[in-house]
Structures are given as C-alpha cells and as structure tokens.
Amino acid sequence: MEIQSSRLLRKVLIGATGSALALTSAFAANYEDTMPLETVKPAPNLEEVLPHPEQREEAMAKLAEFESRTGKRPNILVYLMDDVGWGDLGVYGGGVAVGAPTPNMDALARDGLMLTSAYSQPSSSPTRATLLTGQLPVRHGILRPTLYNEPGGLTNAVTLAQLLSDAGYVTQAVGKWHMGENPGSQPQNVGFDDFSGFLSVSDLYTEWRDPYFYPEIANSEERTEMIREWAFEKYWV
C-alpha cells in the first residue's frame, strides 16, 4: 500500500506540476505581449519606471477638458493623518460604524478615485517625506522622526510641492511638518508658498515651556531663541 500510495502521489504531483508549468507559460506569453520593452527614467532623482502612454494621454485629456470647461486647473488636496487606518473613514466602512462620522472626506472620496491598495512607512516622518518626494526612506534619508534642529531632512530634495509650484500652482501646507527643522528642510524652502502649523511634534507647543518634564529644552536659552527666530513660526497665541 505504501508503494502504491507513493506512486499515486508522484503521478498527482507530476500532473499538477505539468499543469502549473502550462499555465505559467500561457500567462507569461500574455503578460509579455502587454509589457513595455523599455523603462524610462523621468528625472535624475527617480528610479526607472514602466511608461503607460495610454493612461497618460487619458489623464491629460481629462485635465484639458476640465480646464477648458472651467478656466481653472483642478485643486489638489492631500490629507495625511497620524494613527488613522484606511478603514476608519466612512467610505471604506468606518465613519459612523466606528463612532466617528467623516461626511466631508466621504463626499470628496465619492467624487474622486477611490483606491483599495496602498503602502505607508513605519512612522510619520518617513511617510510624509515619501509622499512629498516619491522616494523610499533609504533614498530621501528620513528613516525615523526627525530630531530638533537636525541637519539633513528634505534639504535639496525635489518635492511634489515644488513641481506644482513650478507648474503655476499656489501651494500650502497646514499642520504638523516634522520633516526637518533646519532651514533647508522647512516648508518655504521645499516648494510651499505658505505654511501654517508647527515644524516638529505637537508637544512642541508645551515642552519648551515645561522645565519639569523637559528641563534640557525649557532651560536652554539657545533652544528658546531658536524657536523665536524660526521662519514661519506660528507658536505665539
């Protein structure tokens, strides 16, 4: 029985393997028929990509129709929130169901393109920088939340905001920045025309005034003076 079972299993495996190979060959043939043969490097700071000219032409046609009909370019609004899952919004099954209605964002989503697959980085700063630059953290260099007055950050990066500004858009960032406090990484120097928010984490509002929990910051005259002199600072109320 063991020998017979072994032979039967071997025949099943051979049959399954043959079928799999046949399916793989057929799939590969169809896939190669639709794949571009060459990749394109759109900019020195970007990786090579597979061009999709038909999709680009369709998108450009829609943009041209919108501009012809309204006389304006479409507004571009991006929400980036910490500690919020895609399923927290009403349009993806959250909202009222989880006790937090999101009617305005739901309306925007229903009028736009709803995506069902996405990636994020392990913490907020790398995710923000990746969204702005189109690069992975190993490329843009922000691998973790940035520290106070730390060099690096977005200095010399080509950002989405800069590309939109160069194309004639008025660009604005609102809220938490946290992609570098050094001048080269600040919003006004990487493509934003206006910024209203805070450059570091949200507890920046209080920690530099709190000698009990943050003595190394609150008792530092240099740190306090740096905050007072920051461009685009919005701390004083």
Structure description:
Residues 1-29 and 232-237 have low confidence and may be disordered. This protein has three domains: 1-35; 38-74, no CATH class; 119-237, no CATH class. Helix content is 41%, strand content 4%. It contains nine helices and two strands; from the N terminus they run H-H-H-H-H-H-E-E-H-H-H. 14% of the residues are buried. The termini are far apart. A two-stranded parallel sheet has the order 1-2. It has helices at residues 2-34, 53-70, 103-110, 124-133, 137-140, 160-166, 204-207, 215-218, 221-229; strands at residues 172-176, 194-198. With 237 residues, it is mainly α.
What's the SSE blueprint?
Blueprint: H1 2-34, H2 53-70, H3 103-110, H4 124-133, H5 137-140, H6 160-166, E1 172-176, E2 194-198, H7 204-207, H8 215-218, H9 221-229
Parallel strand pairs: 1-2
Name the features:
mainly alpha; disordered C terminus; disordered N terminus
Number of domains: 3
Mean pLDDT: 77
Portion in helices: 40-55%
Distance between the termini: 85 Å
Please state the structural category.
Answer: mainly alpha
Brief summary of the model shown:
This protein has 237 residues and is mainly alpha-helical. The protein has 9 helices and 2 strands; from the N terminus they run H-H-H-H-H-H-E-E-H-H-H.
